[in-house]
Amino acid sequence: MRRTLVRVGTEYPMVGTLAFGVVDRGTNVVEVRPTSICALSCIFCSVNAGPKSRARAAEYIVDPDALVNAVEEVASYKGTRVEAHIDGMGDPGNYPYLVDLVQEIREVVDVISMQTRLYMLSESKIKELEEAGLTRINLSMDALLPPLAQAVWNQLLRRELSAQEAGFHTQQHEASSHNLPRASARLE
Ligand code: SF4
Which of 2, 37, 134, 186 shows its CA 20 to 30 Å from the CA of 116? Predict the structure, then answer.
């Protein structure tokens, strides 16, 4: 299904939709949604993202300045330690201005994290994100069959060892309710 790509600039409000912009759910975590684009079409996707989506008429990509201004405004209104969490109704790893966005948001919040499946980011791009100020990557892995989940997990462990050798501090978290592992990498 062909879709329109909408470029969202500073003329649009950044708060008020879940599709893009800034989402404040009343905690110290402010969600930052730079794009709805995703190259995958996971069968369980709760937001029907990806090329096989049958429900989407448009995708969004947001001007980084508009996001930075909105995060600054929301963070200063909250007046507390704020974590900016880059996520969205797609995978923010596809956002072309990600490094710039991280660098500029880092100036106005205490912690900046990101949700991604990571496949689109090279090691050098991850290093750039770390240097820009990214504090943490939340990485989800999914598989229907336990042997496949184990194989993916083993692959992650190999990557984790490489990351540690490159100087990253990594952390693993508990298995999910489907016995699938989850991990996050703290970039320090
Ligand atoms: S990677 Fe995330 S956003 Fe993309 S299709 Fe899968 S669940 Fe949906």
Answer: 2
Residue identifier of the C-alpha nearest atom 3 of ligand 1: 90
Q: Please give the model's pTM, rounded to 2 decimal places.
A: 0.84
Q: Which residues of 123-136 are buried (b: 16+ CB within 10 A; e: fewer)?
A: eeebbbbbebbbbb
pLDDT 10s digits, 44-65: 899 999 999 999 999 999 999 9
90 close to ligand 1 (CB < 6 Angstrom): yes
Answer yes or no: is the C-beta of 104 below 6 A from any ligand 1 atom: no
Which CATH number does 4-140 carry? Answer: 3.20.20.70
Q: Calculate how far, in angstroms, residue 141's C-alpha sits from the geometric centre of ligand 1.
A: 11
pLDDT tens for residues 79-101? 888 999 999 999 999 999 999 99
The total number of residues shown for the chain amounts to 188
In the chain, what are the domain boundaries?
A: 4-140, 141-188
